[in-house]
Amino acid sequence: MAYKTRRRRDFKKRLRDRRMEQVAEALDISKDFLAGTVKVTVTGTEELTVEGALSIIEYTDVSLRLNTRDFILSVSGSSFEVNDMDTDYLRLKGQIETVSYLKL
Amino acid sequence: MLKYLFHFLTGYVIIKIEGKGIENFLNLLSSEKIYIGRLKKRGNLCSTGEINPAFYHRVKLFARECGLKISVFKRGGLPFALMRLKKRKAFLAGFFVSVFLLLFLCSRIWVIQIDETDTEKRERLEAVLAENGVVCGMPRRDLKPFEVQKSVLGSNDEYSWFWIDVKGTVASVRVRYKKQPPKITDSYDICNLIASKDGIIEKITVRNGNAEVEKGTAVTKGQLLVSGVLPNDIMSAMYVHADADIIARVKRTASESASLIVAERIKTGKTEKKYSISVFGKDFNLFLKSPDFKHYDGNIREKRFKLFGNYYMPFVIRTYNYSEVKPVPTRIEPIVAEQKLKDAMYGELKNTIGEKNILSATYETKRGDNEVTVILNAECLENIGTEAEITFEKKPFVPKDISKSTITG
Q: Nearest CB to B23: which of A56, A83, A84?
Protein backbone atom coordinates (compact mmCIF):
# COMPACT_ATOMS: atom_id res chain seq x y z
CA MET A 1 0.00 0.00 0.00
CA ALA A 2 2.77 2.38 1.05
CA TYR A 3 4.73 1.46 -2.06
CA LYS A 4 1.77 2.39 -4.28
CA THR A 5 1.31 5.70 -2.48
CA ARG A 6 4.99 6.57 -2.88
CA ARG A 7 4.91 5.68 -6.58
CA ARG A 8 1.85 7.86 -7.06
CA ARG A 9 3.51 10.72 -5.27
CA ASP A 10 6.69 10.40 -7.34
CA PHE A 11 4.68 10.24 -10.52
CA LYS A 12 2.78 13.41 -9.57
CA LYS A 13 6.04 15.18 -8.75
CA ARG A 14 7.61 14.22 -12.07
CA LEU A 15 4.51 15.34 -13.92
CA ARG A 16 4.54 18.67 -12.15
CA ASP A 17 8.26 19.14 -12.84
CA ARG A 18 7.76 18.36 -16.53
CA ARG A 19 4.99 20.92 -16.77
CA MET A 20 7.13 23.47 -15.04
CA GLU A 21 9.95 22.73 -17.47
CA GLN A 22 7.57 23.38 -20.34
CA VAL A 23 6.47 26.64 -18.77
CA ALA A 24 10.09 27.70 -18.23
CA GLU A 25 10.88 26.87 -21.86
CA ALA A 26 7.89 28.87 -23.06
CA LEU A 27 8.87 31.85 -20.94
CA ASP A 28 12.51 31.48 -21.93
CA ILE A 29 13.76 31.48 -18.34
CA SER A 30 16.16 29.16 -16.52
CA LYS A 31 14.61 25.77 -15.76
CA ASP A 32 16.05 25.52 -12.27
CA PHE A 33 14.01 28.56 -11.35
CA LEU A 34 10.64 26.76 -11.78
CA ALA A 35 11.21 23.09 -12.38
CA GLY A 36 13.77 22.42 -9.69
CA THR A 37 16.37 20.88 -11.98
CA VAL A 38 19.97 20.47 -10.87
CA LYS A 39 22.19 23.52 -11.25
CA VAL A 40 25.93 22.91 -11.59
CA THR A 41 28.26 25.91 -11.45
CA VAL A 42 31.99 25.53 -12.09
CA THR A 43 34.13 28.55 -11.18
CA GLY A 44 37.52 28.29 -12.86
CA THR A 45 39.17 25.01 -11.99
CA GLU A 46 38.95 25.34 -8.23
CA GLU A 47 35.32 25.50 -7.22
CA LEU A 48 32.17 23.63 -8.10
CA THR A 49 28.70 24.13 -6.63
CA VAL A 50 25.75 21.83 -7.11
CA GLU A 51 22.24 22.88 -6.21
CA GLY A 52 19.47 20.30 -6.09
CA ALA A 53 21.66 17.18 -5.80
CA LEU A 54 20.02 14.11 -4.28
CA SER A 55 22.75 12.03 -2.72
CA ILE A 56 26.46 11.28 -2.67
CA ILE A 57 27.47 8.02 -4.32
CA GLU A 58 31.20 8.30 -3.86
CA TYR A 59 33.46 10.76 -2.10
CA THR A 60 37.25 10.62 -1.98
CA ASP A 61 39.85 13.36 -2.14
CA VAL A 62 40.28 12.78 -5.91
CA SER A 63 36.71 12.11 -7.05
CA LEU A 64 33.12 12.90 -6.27
CA ARG A 65 30.00 11.27 -7.71
CA LEU A 66 26.55 12.69 -7.08
CA ASN A 67 23.20 11.18 -7.87
CA THR A 68 20.64 13.62 -9.23
CA ARG A 69 17.17 13.14 -10.63
CA ASP A 70 18.25 13.02 -14.27
CA PHE A 71 21.93 12.07 -14.30
CA ILE A 72 24.99 11.08 -12.29
CA LEU A 73 27.48 13.89 -11.95
CA SER A 74 31.07 12.77 -11.76
CA VAL A 75 33.91 15.13 -10.84
CA SER A 76 37.56 14.15 -10.73
CA GLY A 77 40.67 16.05 -9.73
CA SER A 78 42.74 16.34 -6.58
CA SER A 79 42.73 17.84 -3.04
CA PHE A 80 38.94 17.80 -2.82
CA GLU A 81 37.26 19.34 0.14
CA VAL A 82 33.50 19.70 0.64
CA ASN A 83 33.23 23.19 2.04
CA ASP A 84 29.48 23.34 2.60
CA MET A 85 26.94 20.61 2.48
CA ASP A 86 23.28 21.10 3.17
CA THR A 87 20.03 19.40 2.14
CA ASP A 88 20.20 20.41 -1.52
CA TYR A 89 23.45 22.33 -1.78
CA LEU A 90 27.05 21.23 -2.05
CA ARG A 91 30.19 23.26 -2.59
CA LEU A 92 33.36 21.48 -3.59
CA LYS A 93 36.84 22.99 -3.53
CA GLY A 94 40.05 21.62 -4.97
CA GLN A 95 41.77 21.12 -8.32
CA ILE A 96 38.98 20.09 -10.72
CA GLU A 97 40.16 18.28 -13.83
CA THR A 98 37.04 16.73 -15.36
CA VAL A 99 33.30 17.05 -14.93
CA SER A 100 31.17 14.41 -16.63
CA TYR A 101 27.48 13.56 -16.77
CA LEU A 102 26.04 10.05 -17.06
CA LYS A 103 22.45 10.14 -18.25
CA LEU A 104 20.19 7.75 -16.34
CA MET B 1 31.78 35.28 4.96
CA LEU B 2 28.62 35.81 7.01
CA LYS B 3 28.27 32.04 7.32
CA TYR B 4 31.75 31.78 8.85
CA LEU B 5 30.98 34.64 11.20
CA PHE B 6 27.78 32.90 12.25
CA HIS B 7 29.68 29.68 12.86
CA PHE B 8 32.25 31.53 14.91
CA LEU B 9 29.57 33.16 17.05
CA THR B 10 27.58 29.96 17.60
CA GLY B 11 30.68 27.82 17.99
CA TYR B 12 31.63 24.71 16.02
CA VAL B 13 33.07 21.24 16.53
CA ILE B 14 35.42 19.60 14.09
CA ILE B 15 34.73 15.89 14.19
CA LYS B 16 36.95 13.06 13.08
CA ILE B 17 35.09 10.37 11.11
CA GLU B 18 36.75 6.97 10.87
CA GLY B 19 35.54 3.95 8.93
CA LYS B 20 34.22 2.85 5.55
CA GLY B 21 31.16 4.21 3.78
CA ILE B 22 31.24 7.87 4.66
CA GLU B 23 28.85 8.56 1.75
CA ASN B 24 25.89 6.96 3.56
CA PHE B 25 26.63 8.98 6.62
CA LEU B 26 26.75 12.21 4.60
CA ASN B 27 23.47 11.38 2.86
CA LEU B 28 21.88 10.71 6.22
CA LEU B 29 23.04 14.09 7.54
CA SER B 30 21.76 15.77 4.40
CA SER B 31 18.33 14.16 4.72
CA GLU B 32 18.18 15.18 8.40
CA LYS B 33 19.06 18.75 7.41
CA ILE B 34 22.26 18.77 9.49
CA TYR B 35 24.88 21.09 8.07
CA ILE B 36 28.40 19.78 7.64
CA GLY B 37 31.25 21.90 6.30
CA ARG B 38 34.99 21.77 5.61
CA LEU B 39 34.80 18.06 4.92
CA LYS B 40 38.32 16.88 4.22
CA LYS B 41 39.86 13.48 3.63
CA ARG B 42 42.73 12.75 5.95
CA GLY B 43 43.69 9.33 4.68
CA ASN B 44 41.82 6.37 3.22
CA LEU B 45 39.48 5.79 6.11
CA CYS B 46 39.61 9.06 7.95
CA SER B 47 37.92 12.42 7.33
CA THR B 48 37.24 15.55 9.29
CA GLY B 49 34.23 17.87 9.11
CA GLU B 50 32.75 20.82 10.93
CA ILE B 51 29.32 20.63 12.58
CA ASN B 52 27.22 22.62 14.99
CA PRO B 53 27.90 21.45 18.60
CA ALA B 54 24.15 21.19 19.25
CA PHE B 55 23.86 18.30 16.76
CA TYR B 56 26.88 16.38 18.01
CA HIS B 57 24.94 13.66 19.87
CA ARG B 58 22.55 13.07 16.96
CA VAL B 59 25.47 12.91 14.56
CA LYS B 60 27.15 10.36 16.82
CA LEU B 61 24.01 8.17 16.66
CA PHE B 62 23.90 8.40 12.84
CA ALA B 63 27.57 7.49 12.66
CA ARG B 64 26.96 4.44 14.80
CA GLU B 65 24.10 3.45 12.46
CA CYS B 66 26.44 3.72 9.47
CA GLY B 67 29.18 1.76 11.20
CA LEU B 68 31.50 4.71 11.64
CA LYS B 69 33.35 6.01 14.62
CA ILE B 70 33.41 9.73 15.37
CA SER B 71 35.34 11.76 17.88
CA VAL B 72 35.92 15.42 18.60
CA PHE B 73 38.98 16.65 16.75
CA LYS B 74 38.83 20.31 17.69
CA ARG B 75 36.45 22.83 19.25
CA GLY B 76 36.27 26.41 18.07
CA GLY B 77 34.23 29.60 18.11
CA LEU B 78 33.25 32.18 20.68
CA PRO B 79 31.38 30.02 23.24
CA PHE B 80 34.35 27.65 23.61
CA ALA B 81 36.80 30.57 23.78
CA LEU B 82 34.71 32.17 26.55
CA MET B 83 34.52 28.86 28.37
CA ARG B 84 38.31 28.64 28.33
CA LEU B 85 38.61 32.24 29.50
CA LYS B 86 36.22 31.74 32.42
CA LYS B 87 39.06 30.40 34.51
CA ARG B 88 41.37 33.33 33.69
CA LYS B 89 39.55 35.98 35.71
CA ALA B 90 42.31 38.60 35.67
CA PHE B 91 42.57 38.35 31.91
CA LEU B 92 38.81 38.74 31.54
CA ALA B 93 38.82 41.72 33.93
CA GLY B 94 41.65 43.29 31.91
CA PHE B 95 39.72 42.70 28.70
CA PHE B 96 36.59 44.37 30.01
CA VAL B 97 38.57 47.29 31.46
CA SER B 98 40.32 47.83 28.13
CA VAL B 99 36.99 47.70 26.28
CA PHE B 100 35.54 50.21 28.74
CA LEU B 101 38.61 52.48 28.34
CA LEU B 102 38.39 52.24 24.59
CA LEU B 103 34.74 53.22 24.61
CA PHE B 104 35.47 56.06 27.04
CA LEU B 105 38.34 57.40 24.90
CA CYS B 106 36.31 57.15 21.72
CA SER B 107 33.42 59.07 23.25
CA ARG B 108 35.41 62.27 23.85
CA ILE B 109 36.91 65.07 21.79
CA TRP B 110 40.70 64.93 21.91
CA VAL B 111 41.73 67.13 18.99
CA ILE B 112 40.39 70.59 18.13
CA GLN B 113 41.50 71.56 14.63
CA ILE B 114 41.26 75.26 13.87
CA ASP B 115 41.38 76.37 10.27
CA GLU B 116 43.38 79.55 10.97
CA THR B 117 47.03 80.39 10.40
CA ASP B 118 47.18 83.78 12.12
CA THR B 119 48.38 83.18 15.70
CA GLU B 120 46.44 86.08 17.23
CA LYS B 121 43.16 85.15 15.56
CA ARG B 122 43.74 81.54 16.50
CA GLU B 123 44.27 82.38 20.17
CA ARG B 124 41.15 84.56 20.18
CA LEU B 125 39.14 81.74 18.63
CA GLU B 126 40.50 79.23 21.15
CA ALA B 127 39.38 81.55 23.95
CA VAL B 128 35.92 81.88 22.38
CA LEU B 129 35.66 78.10 22.08
CA ALA B 130 36.74 77.63 25.70
CA GLU B 131 34.11 80.17 26.80
CA ASN B 132 31.48 78.06 25.05
CA GLY B 133 32.72 74.85 26.63
CA VAL B 134 34.51 73.41 23.59
CA VAL B 135 37.69 71.99 25.11
CA CYS B 136 39.81 68.89 24.68
CA GLY B 137 38.38 66.01 26.68
CA MET B 138 34.75 67.10 26.53
CA PRO B 139 32.18 64.38 25.78
CA ARG B 140 31.22 64.17 22.12
CA ARG B 141 27.52 64.04 22.88
CA ASP B 142 27.76 67.37 24.79
CA LEU B 143 29.13 69.16 21.74
CA LYS B 144 26.13 70.58 19.95
CA PRO B 145 27.40 72.49 16.88
CA PHE B 146 24.17 74.44 16.33
CA GLU B 147 24.08 75.72 19.91
CA VAL B 148 27.77 76.69 19.87
CA GLN B 149 27.30 78.40 16.49
CA LYS B 150 24.33 80.38 17.82
CA SER B 151 26.21 81.41 20.94
CA VAL B 152 29.45 82.38 19.14
CA LEU B 153 27.77 84.34 16.36
CA GLY B 154 25.50 86.05 18.87
CA SER B 155 28.28 87.24 21.14
CA ASN B 156 31.02 88.04 18.56
CA ASP B 157 30.91 90.67 15.86
CA GLU B 158 34.13 89.36 14.36
CA TYR B 159 32.69 86.24 12.70
CA SER B 160 30.16 86.06 9.93
CA TRP B 161 30.02 82.26 9.87
CA PHE B 162 31.08 79.56 12.29
CA TRP B 163 30.80 75.80 12.23
CA ILE B 164 32.16 72.75 14.06
CA ASP B 165 32.45 69.41 12.29
CA VAL B 166 32.82 66.42 14.56
CA LYS B 167 34.48 63.41 12.97
CA GLY B 168 35.61 60.67 15.33
CA THR B 169 37.42 62.36 18.20
CA VAL B 170 38.34 65.40 16.10
CA ALA B 171 36.38 68.67 16.14
CA SER B 172 37.21 70.80 13.10
CA VAL B 173 36.39 74.46 13.59
CA ARG B 174 35.88 76.70 10.58
CA VAL B 175 35.17 80.42 10.69
CA ARG B 176 34.69 83.24 8.23
CA TYR B 177 35.40 86.81 9.25
CA LYS B 178 33.12 89.79 8.76
CA LYS B 179 34.20 92.70 6.62
CA GLN B 180 34.35 95.61 9.01
CA PRO B 181 32.03 98.47 7.99
CA PRO B 182 33.62 101.89 7.32
CA LYS B 183 34.08 104.13 10.34
CA ILE B 184 31.18 106.55 10.83
CA THR B 185 32.51 110.05 11.18
CA ASP B 186 30.95 112.55 13.47
CA SER B 187 29.60 115.46 11.42
CA TYR B 188 30.47 117.87 14.29
CA ASP B 189 34.11 116.69 14.19
CA ILE B 190 35.23 119.23 11.62
CA CYS B 191 38.67 118.96 10.03
CA ASN B 192 40.85 119.57 6.96
CA LEU B 193 42.95 117.05 5.06
CA ILE B 194 46.63 117.86 4.71
CA ALA B 195 49.50 116.05 3.00
CA SER B 196 51.45 113.64 5.17
CA LYS B 197 54.28 113.41 2.59
CA ASP B 198 55.76 115.23 -0.39
CA GLY B 199 54.46 113.96 -3.71
CA ILE B 200 52.56 114.49 -6.95
CA ILE B 201 48.80 114.00 -6.87
CA GLU B 202 47.79 111.07 -9.05
CA LYS B 203 44.11 110.77 -8.15
CA ILE B 204 41.77 112.67 -5.86
CA THR B 205 38.24 111.61 -4.91
CA VAL B 206 36.53 114.03 -2.56
CA ARG B 207 33.54 112.82 -0.59
CA ASN B 208 33.17 115.82 1.67
CA GLY B 209 34.94 119.18 1.69
CA ASN B 210 36.49 121.47 -0.86
CA ALA B 211 39.44 120.21 -2.98
CA GLU B 212 42.39 122.63 -2.90
CA VAL B 213 44.61 120.63 -5.30
CA GLU B 214 44.07 118.71 -8.52
CA LYS B 215 45.67 115.82 -10.43
CA GLY B 216 49.29 116.58 -11.29
CA THR B 217 49.81 119.12 -8.49
CA ALA B 218 53.10 118.78 -6.63
CA VAL B 219 52.44 118.98 -2.91
CA THR B 220 54.69 119.26 0.10
CA LYS B 221 54.28 117.81 3.54
CA GLY B 222 51.67 119.73 5.57
CA GLN B 223 50.05 121.38 2.55
CA LEU B 224 46.26 121.73 2.63
CA LEU B 225 44.66 119.22 0.25
CA VAL B 226 40.96 119.24 1.08
CA SER B 227 39.48 122.03 3.11
CA GLY B 228 36.70 121.45 5.63
CA VAL B 229 35.51 125.04 5.17
CA LEU B 230 32.84 125.38 2.46
CA PRO B 231 32.19 128.95 1.25
CA ASN B 232 28.55 129.90 1.49
CA ASP B 233 26.71 132.96 0.12
CA ILE B 234 24.05 133.06 2.85
CA MET B 235 26.20 132.33 5.86
CA SER B 236 29.86 133.22 6.28
CA ALA B 237 31.03 129.60 5.83
CA MET B 238 30.06 125.95 6.49
CA TYR B 239 32.36 123.69 8.40
CA VAL B 240 32.46 119.98 7.57
CA HIS B 241 34.54 116.87 8.24
CA ALA B 242 36.72 116.71 5.11
CA ASP B 243 36.80 113.22 3.63
CA ALA B 244 38.68 112.15 0.50
CA ASP B 245 40.98 109.57 -1.07
CA ILE B 246 44.13 111.35 -2.19
CA ILE B 247 46.51 109.07 -4.02
CA ALA B 248 49.91 110.58 -4.77
CA ARG B 249 53.21 109.44 -6.25
CA VAL B 250 55.69 109.57 -3.40
CA LYS B 251 59.30 108.60 -3.00
CA ARG B 252 60.43 106.16 -0.39
CA THR B 253 64.04 105.64 0.56
CA ALA B 254 65.49 102.95 2.74
CA SER B 255 69.02 101.94 3.53
CA GLU B 256 70.40 98.75 5.01
CA SER B 257 73.83 97.27 5.56
CA ALA B 258 75.07 93.72 5.93
CA SER B 259 78.36 92.20 6.92
CA LEU B 260 80.25 90.05 4.43
CA ILE B 261 81.51 87.82 7.21
CA VAL B 262 78.79 85.42 8.26
CA ALA B 263 78.85 82.50 10.65
CA GLU B 264 78.05 79.46 8.55
CA ARG B 265 76.57 76.62 10.58
CA ILE B 266 78.31 73.43 9.47
CA LYS B 267 76.93 70.10 10.63
CA THR B 268 79.43 67.93 12.46
CA GLY B 269 77.39 64.76 11.87
CA LYS B 270 76.64 64.16 15.54
CA THR B 271 72.95 63.73 16.27
CA GLU B 272 70.91 63.06 19.34
CA LYS B 273 67.30 62.04 19.80
CA LYS B 274 65.13 62.79 22.83
CA TYR B 275 61.60 61.70 23.47
CA SER B 276 58.71 63.02 25.44
CA ILE B 277 55.14 61.84 25.79
CA SER B 278 51.97 63.74 26.33
CA VAL B 279 49.12 62.00 28.12
CA PHE B 280 45.78 63.80 28.43
CA GLY B 281 47.55 67.09 27.61
CA LYS B 282 50.27 66.70 30.27
CA ASP B 283 53.85 66.45 29.04
CA PHE B 284 56.37 64.01 30.46
CA ASN B 285 59.98 64.18 29.32
CA LEU B 286 61.69 60.86 28.87
CA PHE B 287 65.12 62.45 29.22
CA LEU B 288 66.96 64.04 32.11
CA LYS B 289 69.17 66.65 30.49
CA SER B 290 69.33 68.80 27.36
CA PRO B 291 71.61 67.76 24.48
CA ASP B 292 75.34 67.95 25.14
CA PHE B 293 75.99 70.16 22.12
CA LYS B 294 76.84 73.82 22.51
CA HIS B 295 75.38 74.79 19.12
CA TYR B 296 72.71 72.70 17.52
CA ASP B 297 69.81 72.72 15.10
CA GLY B 298 66.70 70.91 16.15
CA ASN B 299 63.31 69.86 15.01
CA ILE B 300 60.32 68.27 16.69
CA ARG B 301 58.26 65.48 15.22
CA GLU B 302 54.92 64.74 16.77
CA LYS B 303 53.02 61.50 16.43
CA ARG B 304 49.50 61.26 17.77
CA PHE B 305 48.23 57.79 18.51
CA LYS B 306 45.05 56.89 16.65
CA LEU B 307 42.86 53.82 16.55
CA PHE B 308 41.52 54.20 13.02
CA GLY B 309 40.15 56.93 10.75
CA ASN B 310 39.62 60.08 12.80
CA TYR B 311 39.66 58.38 16.19
CA TYR B 312 42.72 60.08 17.68
CA MET B 313 43.65 59.31 21.28
CA PRO B 314 45.05 61.74 23.86
CA PHE B 315 48.53 60.20 23.65
CA VAL B 316 51.27 61.98 21.76
CA ILE B 317 54.89 60.95 21.29
CA ARG B 318 57.27 63.81 20.55
CA THR B 319 60.69 63.17 19.06
CA TYR B 320 63.29 65.91 19.35
CA ASN B 321 66.02 65.56 16.76
CA TYR B 322 69.17 67.54 17.55
CA SER B 323 72.10 67.77 15.21
CA GLU B 324 75.31 69.48 16.29
CA VAL B 325 76.53 72.42 14.24
CA LYS B 326 79.76 74.36 14.32
CA PRO B 327 79.63 78.08 13.48
CA VAL B 328 82.47 78.82 11.06
CA PRO B 329 83.08 82.46 10.02
CA THR B 330 82.92 82.59 6.21
CA ARG B 331 83.27 85.48 3.79
CA ILE B 332 80.46 85.57 1.25
CA GLU B 333 80.58 87.22 -2.18
CA PRO B 334 79.45 90.90 -2.09
CA ILE B 335 76.99 90.30 -4.95
CA VAL B 336 75.28 87.55 -2.96
CA ALA B 337 74.99 89.76 0.13
CA GLU B 338 73.64 92.63 -2.01
CA GLN B 339 71.02 90.43 -3.62
CA LYS B 340 69.90 89.14 -0.21
CA LEU B 341 69.56 92.70 1.06
CA LYS B 342 67.68 93.81 -2.07
CA ASP B 343 65.23 90.93 -1.75
CA ALA B 344 64.69 91.60 1.94
CA MET B 345 64.11 95.34 1.43
CA TYR B 346 61.74 94.84 -1.49
CA GLY B 347 59.83 92.21 0.50
CA GLU B 348 59.46 94.60 3.43
CA LEU B 349 58.20 97.38 1.15
CA LYS B 350 55.78 94.97 -0.51
CA ASN B 351 54.39 93.96 2.86
CA THR B 352 54.01 97.60 3.90
CA ILE B 353 52.22 99.10 0.89
CA GLY B 354 51.39 96.17 -1.41
CA GLU B 355 53.13 95.16 -4.62
CA LYS B 356 50.60 96.83 -6.95
CA ASN B 357 51.39 100.22 -5.40
CA ILE B 358 55.11 100.02 -6.19
CA LEU B 359 55.68 101.88 -9.47
CA SER B 360 59.44 101.53 -9.67
CA ALA B 361 62.33 100.51 -7.46
CA THR B 362 66.03 101.29 -7.99
CA TYR B 363 68.99 100.31 -5.86
CA GLU B 364 72.32 101.95 -5.09
CA THR B 365 75.06 99.82 -3.60
CA LYS B 366 78.16 100.78 -1.64
CA ARG B 367 80.83 98.18 -0.98
CA GLY B 368 83.22 98.37 1.96
CA ASP B 369 85.95 95.95 3.08
CA ASN B 370 83.69 93.77 5.17
CA GLU B 371 80.32 95.35 4.57
CA VAL B 372 77.85 96.20 1.81
CA THR B 373 75.17 98.90 1.94
CA VAL B 374 72.10 98.97 -0.29
CA ILE B 375 69.94 102.07 -0.71
CA LEU B 376 66.46 101.51 -2.09
CA ASN B 377 64.75 104.36 -3.96
CA ALA B 378 61.18 103.48 -4.75
CA GLU B 379 58.34 105.39 -6.32
CA CYS B 380 55.01 104.37 -4.90
CA LEU B 381 51.34 105.26 -4.87
CA GLU B 382 50.08 106.18 -1.41
CA ASN B 383 47.13 107.83 0.23
CA ILE B 384 48.73 110.93 1.68
CA GLY B 385 45.66 112.64 3.13
CA THR B 386 45.73 113.06 6.89
CA GLU B 387 43.27 114.81 9.15
CA ALA B 388 44.23 118.18 10.66
CA GLU B 389 42.34 120.60 12.84
CA ILE B 390 40.86 123.75 11.31
CA THR B 391 42.36 126.83 12.85
CA PHE B 392 39.91 129.71 13.35
CA GLU B 393 40.48 133.35 13.76
CA LYS B 394 37.00 133.71 15.30
CA LYS B 395 34.83 131.17 17.13
CA PRO B 396 32.92 129.24 14.48
CA PHE B 397 29.19 128.85 14.31
CA VAL B 398 28.21 125.35 15.29
CA PRO B 399 24.49 124.52 14.99
CA LYS B 400 22.78 123.66 18.27
CA ASP B 401 21.24 120.30 18.90
CA ILE B 402 17.58 121.42 18.72
CA SER B 403 16.23 118.23 20.27
CA LYS B 404 17.63 119.36 23.63
CA SER B 405 16.39 122.94 23.44
CA THR B 406 13.14 124.01 25.18
CA ILE B 407 10.52 126.34 23.72
CA THR B 408 9.69 129.24 25.95
CA GLY B 409 7.20 131.97 25.44
A: A56
